[in-house]
Design goal:
Pfam families: C2-set_3 (PF22705), NACHT (PF05729), V-set (PF07686). Keywords: Cell membrane, Disulfide bond, Glycoprotein, Immunoglobulin domain, Membrane, Receptor, Signal, Transmembrane, Transmembrane helix. It is a single-pass type I membrane protein. This protein has 524 residues and is of the alpha+beta class. It folds into 4 domains: 49 residues; 110 residues, Immunoglobulins (Immunoglobulin-like, Sandwich), CATH 2.60.40.10; 90 residues, Immunoglobulin-like (Sandwich); 194 residues, P-loop containing nucleotide triphosphate hydrolases (Rossmann fold, 3-Layer(aba) Sandwich). The chain is built from 10 helices and 26 strands. The strands form 6 sheets. It has a 6-stranded mixed sheet with strand order 2-10-9-4-5-6, with no helix packed on it. It is flat, with a radius of gyration of 36 Å.
């Protein structure tokens, strides 16, 4: 009995000890969990204080010049680790590494070797400034900056390298019958569009008659050559201009003095003949050589073929029934583009318009008004050649008007706003577009026209009665804004209609001839 009591007492004691041990163990686990959570919150709070930011999300540099890209961070004690990398395009490349206060080039890509340095004096104030010199087109990309000072964070920025076009090299070549081929050559990056103008009593574009080629060189710059054939006129001059986005537009001018006269060509022939005659034979031979020279000149007088016959070329007659071969090519391109755009507008907007219906004419007089609420004649909404109109309204309403215009032109509806008289209507949905807005148009077409954005630009610039509609334009993207301002400066024949929400195009409002407003109840 005594032994049984002792055994029970020992069992109870062991049970109590085990229970106490389990309680202590659980308490310890709870303490560890509590301190782990506390550590996470404290660490997150401290880490949130250490952030790396770039001074600019986008840097632009000039070919063979330098650029400085900077990221900022909270300065602390000790030497920071700084790593700059180019992460796009592939493959990734390490640009620069600073570790323990010393440069470490073991992982540096050879492409950047000898061209980068860090401004170490700026590290004391929390600036990791990377200086990249002798810029190349291939330096364009997305760069990442990593800073570590016990804490670590990264930030990224973009670099775009452009090459301004060089001074234009001019050349003149006689092609006979009083015709001369004028050529302009320059190189730069990105590819440029070349515009030609003939200046007499008035200025008229001859870009559609020009022939332009672009060849990429080993350094990725484009060697662009453009030429046009003209007939000599004493009072005329001809100017070529290389149009680039966000860069200077160099130009060169040919005057009548640059084109040799008929008499000067003959004089050169006579002088050459005289030298040969004096050196070789007598006065009789002189007459012989003179007559021969006249025959040679007569044989070297080619004529230019037009679309249907051989004629004495005169580009003054181009607006009538005679066209050069270049005009025929662009006429084909224009017709191909018109067909593709009309098909695109019909397929894209027909159902939407069918759902809401075309506006009756009596409705239009109540749709548009001025800033102070005065009604606007609907005919004033469509810009004239070279004119810019800004139309502000609700997102759905302004987009419906833009699509309504495009579809009316596509279906040849001779409605109240008279879109039928436009030869070309190009609608750009700006929400998805950036930079060269016309590239979005080419991408949206379901029919392969073989046209590039540059072709579309020239057709808009040089076609009378053309209309460009920018739907939903918002200012603030530097690249897109600069492209638009350049287009407005260089497109005297194209009307420009910009639709926007109120307050999103304040600079354009100041630059535009007309600013109108859509009735606020039009949502569609």
């Amino acid at each position: 009995m005594h032994d049984s009591a002792v055994a029970v007492a020992v069992a109870v004691a062991n049970r109590l000890k085990m229970t106490r041990s389990l309680r202590l163990q659980r308490a310890g686990q709870m303490d560890r969990v509590f301190f782990s959570i506390l550590h996470i919150f404290i660490w997150s709070g401290i880490s949130a204080l250490f952030t790396v930011e770039v001074e600019s999300p986008l840097y632009e540099g000039q070919f063979q010049h330098d650029v400085k890209m900077v990221c900022r961070y909270p300065p602390g004690n000790g030497d920071p680790t700084v790593i700059w990398r180019r992460i796009r395009p592939s493959p990734e490349m390490e640009v620069f590494r600073l570790q323990n206060g010393r440069e470490d080039d073991r992982f540096q890509d050879k492409w950047f070797r000898g061209r980068v340095q860090l401004v170490k004096e700026d590290l004391r104030v929390g600036r990791a400034a990377l200086l990249l010199s002798d810029l190349n087109i291939n330096d364009t990309g997305v760069y990442q900056c990593l800073i570590e000072t016990g804490e670590a964070d990264v930030a990224q920025t973009s670099l775009t390298v452009k090459a301004a076009y060089t001074a234009i090299k001019r050349s003149v070549r006689s092609v006979g019958d009083g015709l001369f081929q004028l050529s302009c050559e320059s190189h730069g990056y990105p590819n440029a569009t070349v515009a030609w103008k003939e200046e007499k009593s008035d200025k008229r574009s001859i870009t559609l008659r020009s022939d332009t080629t672009a060849v990429a060189a080993a350094d990725h710059r484009f060697n662009v050559t453009s030429s046009v054939v003209v007939k000599r006129a004493a009072d005329a001059s001809y100017t070529c201009t290389f149009l680039q986005h966000a860069l200077p537009n160099p130009s060169a001018t040919f005057t009548g003095a640059d084109l040799p006269s008929r008499s000067s060509v003959l004089s050169a022939s006579v002088v050459a003949s005289l030298i040969a005659i004096v050196a070789i034979i007598s006065a009789a031979a002189f007459l012989y050589w003179k007559l021969k020279g006249a025959k040679v000149k007569k044989l070297q007088s080619p004529r230019i073929l037009t679309a249907d016959k051989v004629c004495d070329p005169s580009f003054a007659c181009l607006p009538t029934q005679e066209f050069s071969l270049y005009d025929e090519v662009f006429k084909d391109k224009m017709e191909m583009l018109r067909v593709a755009l009309k098909k695109h507008y019909t397929n894209s907007f027909r159902d939407k318009t069918a759902e809401h219906g075309f506006f009756p004419e009596e409705v239009f007089s109540h749709l548009f008004h001025t800033r102070d609420g005065q009604p606007v004649d609907p005919c004033q909404v469509l810009p004239a050649s070279g004119e810019t109109v800004v139309l502000e309204g609700n997102p759905g309403g302004k987009t419906f008007i833009a699509q309504h215009l495009a579809l009316s032109w596509a279906q040849d509806r001779n409605w109240h706003l008279f879109t039928a008289h436009f030869q070309l209507v190009v609608l750009v949905a700006c929400e998805q577009a950036k930079g060269n807005l016309l590239q979005q148009v080419i991408s949206d077409l379901t029919v392969d026209t073989g046209l590039a954005a540059e072709d579309l630009l020239i057709l808009l610039m040089e076609t009378a009665d053309s209309l460009l509609i920018l739907d939903g334009y918002t200012e603030g993207c530097e690249e897109t804004d600069e492209w638009l301002h350049s287009f407005m400066r260089n497109s005297p024949k194209c009307g420009l209609l910009i639709t926007a929400c109120q307050g999103q195009c304040q600079n354009l409002e100041r630059r535009s001839e007309k600013v109108m407003f859509l009735h606020k109840n039009l949502h569609r």
